[in-house]
Amino acid sequence: MIISEINPHIRLVDRFLFSSQGATFQVKDCRIFYIISGAIEIFIENQQYILNPDSMFYCCGGSIYNIKADEGTELIAVNFDLSQRKSRDIMPHSPVKLDDTHTPTDKYNIDIENGGFLNSHLYIENGTEFFHVLRNIINEFSSRELFFREKSSALLKNLLIDLSRMKNEKTKNTSDTVLKAADYIKSNFRINLKNKEIADIVGYHEYYLNRLFLKHMGVSMHQYVLETRLEEAKKLLISTTIQLSEIAEKCGFNSNAHLTACFKQNYNISPLKYREKFKNKI
């Protein structure tokens, strides 16, 4: 099944007052939560999300999450399948509470070949642009006019496609942000760089930018700065005869000892032995 073939079957959509003390569930269908008031804490796939008013959350069928909600939290909930294969089943599917008598199963999963987040989960910090769509779906189910299920399905499919577009654009934007930060590091590695300083340049929080580096570069910001300095040190070692102390200064290290310790830790060889081994042999 591919994303162009999805045809959502909605079993439940409405505004609810909700509370939970932190139980772990496996859901049988896909879910969308939109927070009206209060807050929800969700732990899913080793990630934690805090849902505040106007934030939105999607997870696919078969997802396992631990959910905790403030007393009296109000939200919009949509429970649905991504296909109409079980369209005669119109009653909501209650999630399975995982405990000693219930263990996870994969029978609820439906894989969308090019579905991206549809096969997993998605957190939207500000989903206000989707609120009117969810409200329209609720109105369709409340009025139950002719073909209300078909109309609601079409509205939900459009929403899911818009979320996919947003996700793709966000991925592109975050990739561009990391490249901008990386360019700044390459131009300024000789000075004492701090994560906060780098993050301020691109307008992100340092912890979030560090997560983006791990995702797109495979290393933390700190490690990327270090690797950039070490690569420059390697070039100077084999292309010049300047002293190690000058190389350390030119590459942003505090001292000869600092450069030597980092060099050994990353390459299992000292800077001077590296120079001896590779100088004039490239």
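Next protein, fold it too.
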Amino acid sequence: MNKIELNHNSLKKSYDKKIIRKFKDMKEKFKESNNIKNNPLLYQVYIKDFGCFETGLTVIEPGTINKEFYMTKGHKHQKPTKEIYILLKGKGKLIIQDKKTKILNLKKDKTYIIPKKSGHRLINTGDKKLEVLTIYSKNAGHSYNFKFKKRVFK
């Protein structure tokens, strides 16, 4: 059996799918998106398929759009399933929203379990790249139309 390492270096080199999100892909997710020049890279996700589950490495660039920190689109699962987040590098926050909204300061190597029916979003509040390992059921599905009530500004 081959050894599998789930770290930022191995996932960046050996992935099955890569998602790239730039500003124009997420313009409507920011409170104010006027006067933004070019199309800056916000984040990338390197996904490895393990059959019944997938793991992803989300890498969010440092920066802001009109003082609102770079963030992921955020989503809720179409099938109620938990998801695991682990901060590997950087400084950031995790928004978890169900009936109430929680904004958590991420701590390195701590495991965060996203509840089954909650929307969730990562935010890079640091000046370096934020790297978070995620583990989730392959058939969970992602709904990106989820509306988040809270925002994080510089």
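About the second fold: The chain has one domain: 8-137.
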